[in-house]
Amino acid sequence: MSHRGIWLRRVLIGSLLLGTLLIFSSCSGIVSGGQNTLAPEGSVAGRQRDLFLLVVWPAAAIFVLVEGLIILIIWRFHHRKGDDTLPRQVHGNPALEIAWTIAPAVLLAIVAVPTLAGVVTLGATPSKIGTTVNVSAARWVWSFSYPDVKDSSGQPVTGPPNELHIPAGQNVEFIITSQDVIHSFWIPKLGGKTDAVPNRQNRMWLKADRPGEYSGQCAEFCGALGSEGHATMRFRVVVQTPEAYRAYLQGLASGSPQAVANQGGN
Ligand SMILES: [Cu+2]
């Protein structure tokens, strides 16, 4: 192998190793933190994952095909010592050009059908809603209140900051707003994201399959101050059985948070 060939091979192997390392280092935190969108625990997140993979797999196949052809062509047709003859010159190939114009158009049309169907389904609030939660974001805390149950002054009961409770197996609607800048409401394993915008009420819904604890996160960079900031703007999501959820709301209404402390969803 020529000197240049050895050098090229080293660079290729080096970049491949570095790229793989980078990918795995960024994934490990997401997986261990319970924010893996590829392991959904609800119908909305499941559909979002399916749409993502529907695009990623064909894109990966096309990437491998195109990059493979480029590498093959570089290897097959590069200049060789002692061979100074001009290769065969090609000007245009109508059949090939029509094919590579039509093929992507057909592929995009196929991908568009489930994508648009998903946008319509996930964008519309389902007719049957089990419960509604008001979500209010502020730098750097999430507040959740529950209009299904009112406190003694007639206001929706409010839970502790950065702790959301929802019932399993029911469509949950969120009415989302912000007190200051734009934030984004996101529970990676259950659904999202929807922006929290001051003076606006955005709606989002999702359904959690089973009781358990999940992790939510602000998904719109909203500033930082010292050790606090966007990155620390996370919240616990406690998915409970519908009965435990109702009991939790009643506990908030009666002002006895001690009574609800042990009713975490598991
Ligand atoms: Cu934020």
At a glance:
This protein has helices spanning 3-32, 43-77, 94-123, 242-253, 257-260, and strands at residues 131-138, 141-150, 156-158, 163-167, 171-178, 183-187, 191-196, 202-207, 212-218, 224-225, 228-229, 234-240. With 266 residues, the protein is α+β, with helices and mostly antiparallel strands. The chain has a five-stranded mixed beta sheet.
Describe the protein's architecture and organization.
This protein has helices at 3-32, 43-77, 94-123, 242-253, 257-260; strands at residues 131-138, 141-150, 156-158, 163-167, 171-178, 183-187, 191-196, 202-207, 212-218, 224-225, 228-229, 234-240. With 266 residues, it is an alpha+beta fold. The longest helix has 35 residues, at 43-77. The chain has a domain at 131-260: Cupredoxins -  blue copper proteins (Immunoglobulin-like, Sandwich). The protein has a 5-stranded mixed β-sheet with strand order 3-2-1-5-8. The protein has a 5-stranded mixed β-sheet with strand order 4-12-9-6-7. Strands 10-11 form a two-stranded antiparallel ribbon. 42% of the residues lie in helices and 26% in strands. A hairpin with a 3-residue loop joins strand 6 (183-187) and strand 7. The chain has 5 helices and 12 strands. The model is unreliable at 258-266 (pLDDT under 50).
